[in-house]
Amino acid sequence: MVDGEVDIFKEFKEHSVAEFFKKNRHMLGYSGKVRSLTTAVHELITNSLDACEEAGILPDVYVKLERLGEEHYRLTVRDNGPGIPPHIVPKVFGKLLAGTKFHRMIQTRGQQGIGAAGVTMFVQITTGKPIHVKTSTGDGTVWEMDVMVDVMKNEPIVKNRTHYPGSWRGTEVIAEMKEVEYNRGKYSVYEYLRRTAIANPHVRITFVDPDGKIHTFERSSLEPVRIGEEAKPHPFGITPDDLLSLSKVSKAKTVGRMLTNSLHGTGGKAVISLMKVLPHVLKKPPRELTWSEAERIVAAFQAIRFLSENRAARKLVEAKKKELTEEERLLFNQMKRYVRKITGEETTLEKTYEVMKALSGVRIRGPRTDVLVPIGEERIRKSLRSNLKPSFVAVVERKPRVYSGGIPFQVEVGVAVGGNISSFELMRFANRVPLLFDAGGCAITEAVKSIDWKRYGFPDFFNSPVVVLVNVSSTHIPYTTAGKQAIADVPEVFNEIRQALMEVGRKLREYANKVNAVQELLQKKKVLEHYLPLIARSLADMSGEDEKAVETLLKNMVEERYRRINELLEKIEGEAS
Amino acid sequence: MVDGEVDIFKEFKEHSVAEFFKKNRHMLGYSGKVRSLTTAVHELITNSLDACEEAGILPDVYVKLERLGEEHYRLTVRDNGPGIPPHIVPKVFGKLLAGTKFHRMIQTRGQQGIGAAGVTMFVQITTGKPIHVKTSTGDGTVWEMDVMVDVMKNEPIVKNRTHYPGSWRGTEVIAEMKEVEYNRGKYSVYEYLRRTAIANPHVRITFVDPDGKIHTFERSSLEPVRIGEEAKPHPFGITPDDLLSLSKVSKAKTVGRMLTNSLHGTGGKAVISLMKVLPHVLKKPPRELTWSEAERIVAAFQAIRFLSENRAARKLVEAKKKELTEEERLLFNQMKRYVRKITGEETTLEKTYEVMKALSGVRIRGPRTDVLVPIGEERIRKSLRSNLKPSFVAVVERKPRVYSGGIPFQVEVGVAVGGNISSFELMRFANRVPLLFDAGGCAITEAVKSIDWKRYGFPDFFNSPVVVLVNVSSTHIPYTTAGKQAIADVPEVFNEIRQALMEVGRKLREYANKVNAVQELLQKKKVLEHYLPLIARSLADMSGEDEKAVETLLKNMVEERYRRINELLEKIEGEAS
Q1: Largest alpha-carbon pair distance within chain A?
Q2: Do B32 and A126 touch (CB under 8 A)?
Q3: pLDDT (tens digit, 9 = 90+) per residue, B526-571?
Q4: Which residues from chain B sit within 8 angstroms of residue A85, using beta carbons?
Q5: Whole-model pTM above 0.95?
Q6: Which of A94, A389, A541, A552 could link A147 by a cystine bridge, Cβ 3.0 to 4.6 Å?
Q7: How far is residue A380's CA from residue A109's CA, in Å, rounded to a whole number?
Q8: B574 pLDDT exceeds 70?
Q9: Mutate which of A3, A6, A10, A11 to disrupt the B interface (most B C-beta within 10 Å)?
């Protein structure tokens, strides 16, 4: 026995998730006076926008900040959303890890069930007061109540609950905070709202600042943003653990039917093909699925993905070739590895071809586009033009992809150059929510930094007048922290952002090339025009013609020669407008 | 009533903290194949080191990595620590937010009660298998068991529990993982262990890599690191919420006694002085303490801090001056604000002086140094020298400070320049644990970047052969994420790191100045020596003396003149050795 052994474990205790986040409030974004205020606004607004969009309402959000004293403010956020049923209010604002969004595979701004209760915790930590909530679902009754978090238990405490008749519909939250400060800098509430408006042209935001000045961000689009459909996990990103989790709750009679019901794009045909390869596994009741069987199913999906992305492999399988070139041998060995994983045993040449042949018939569609709601190419273009008045804009919207867990995501990039832009700026968004903080630790920043912009015509990109807008949409954004201000370096997401940036880079290069070509021609023309009188005089001397006449002739020749400068210029302007 | 209103809240659910971190495993550090492996090693090793140090044992840690297949490894971590009582094992490895460290204000590497169970979750997510634990407290019985996490409930599942006689003491964990990869790069297990050895010279680490090669990081110090004492919150960083939390569990009869018992450095004398200012509040039973009273106590502590740091203010209070200069008026107004907050009402000149006078008698010591365990100035110097063979080393150890919540922390910085160092490197540590990831989002990185190194003699610091080591020690490191790889931008911590860097910068400047002075002298000497024969010849010609004799004379003059170069050089070398 050693000194202290007993003492160490006498202290062994459990603690609630609320205690954890209270002690680590910076993980929720509550560090620094300016940031804490912006975080609170962000949490309440994202809830408002999500609720409005789910209910098909054009969001109209009112934000008011009143200064009550030194580092002491009262924040009011009011929306015209669907309201919150009164029995739900306490959990929304008084319990962490409770909400409508965590278990659903749907693209919303919130996804953790932490944000609103996090605001309540911050309010009570800095002022000792509850948050005040007023809400009505439009059923003729308005509810009001005060909510706090019982930190030790992570349960809500409700006080002063009242209700009265009223025809209003929506939710209003009043949060009094200390240790916060308002300014107009790049991390401020104002900047957050401005960027929210850029990425959400269907939203109207009215902001009353602490001086009483009213700023209105008017909506430029009258169509409500369609809400994304609820997604199913995509088989190309599914893991054995995901399949086992599904198998424990599935009501399907067989594993095959469970796959059809629970996964995206795994219809009857796909399952019939899979059945040839894994008949025993797919006929089992889901509850009897084992880990190694789940691994075999995953391997089969990976083989299908491999075949669908690799034409040479499909050809090889079709031809059942036995004499292989060096390149074909690599492909074949890869397929052999898949088949070993699928069958769980060694394989022969015939067997490998047989299994791959069965799987090459399976078609699994890419992630559904209707589960993701990007800003949209046109909206990004319009927004960058109207907000920044640049001389050139390029936008790329990539197709949806899948990352680990079968989770669909999609990347959009817009780049604006020149015009009213005076310096470099990177605007990061996730599900159309501006990310103002933690830029250093964000996959978007990393991806932008990783590009060799010289290759795209920008020798000093980060000191050029360029605005880069990146928006990542997903049913589950892999945020680095519960504070949701940076995207983690998940390889699939990082690579896809890079691809989008390189694609937009090629557009920039084309533009830069054209601009350079025009500038070169202009330079040549200038030189010619400079020497033109001299040449004209020499020619006139030699030929005995009238000097003026020769000069006019030459001038016309130059103009003719360089007329295409104007054409090129017009074309570039046309693209940029 | 609006479309969808009912549907939205039908989906309202609660979820466990294990579900949350399973879905956001990257928040625990499990993103990327190399990083995930390093994270698992990190979590198990920090637990081993903490346990050894608490029990006063010189840590001897054995780490073995075996490659079982493609992206598939088995990790074994074994220590000679105090062992874990068998009934505690399931919660340590099978339940998140449970542990010995969260509720104690003590400097340990672990502090959240998440790490070990996080490894178990990662193991079961990627392999479907449990973690295997073997442990004995040295009481003659060895326990073995398999542990998993029931993710929906955040509760442990234990299988195959056995025990048998044995005289061994320690803990061994075997974790089989997939989706991981080993390499020797800058984010690898190897690099993690190397840096752990640099900051923990009392630890012996034996590492068997996947090729079977054994790397031993031998200890260079035989004295066990003393474990930090358990701290009490420091009154200068305490918040009203902290006081109210204390008041709910305090067994003291009065608030005054509670302050003496629960806060650092608030002895009887201090409370007597406070009593003069807040007699009513300090005599209350703790349970009756209100928020606004807690705010008044906090304001009193802040005023004490203000007085202790401000000699001019103390003078003013002593003199009770009525005719004030511009500068004194500013000081006085600041004091007035404190007194208003302390008394909760408007104040007069007399009243302000009276209250501040009472408080100016209060002495509150800085945070206790024995609760923090820095690496130590000498150890950093030795470690940098022996590991990097630089030509110069400067080390700064700052005094302990307090950040919000009354939490003590301390910053150490070491800088090594030249010698065997070929490029810039920043080594970040928190409580002597190396931070390899998330450098971009870390207060240490931000602080290093924020310094104008040109002022300290480095025109291009980040391309210079310099290694910067920063270690932050605290009873609660404000990590940005539960993955504990970056320190959040808590203002007090950020500023203190900056102060330390500037202090070390001044030492660097002194060194750079000396080096420059020597180089200048050497240059002058070289020029003189170059022209010396020529001058000697001219002099010899003019004077008729022997040329050789004149040259020797001149040479001796030069040598004499520049003898101090050697002195300077010796001095610099002496400092650097």
Answers
A1: 118
A2: no
A3: 777 777 777 777 777 777 778 788 788 778 777 776 776 667 666 6
A4: 9
A5: no
A6: A94
A7: 18
A8: no
A9: A11
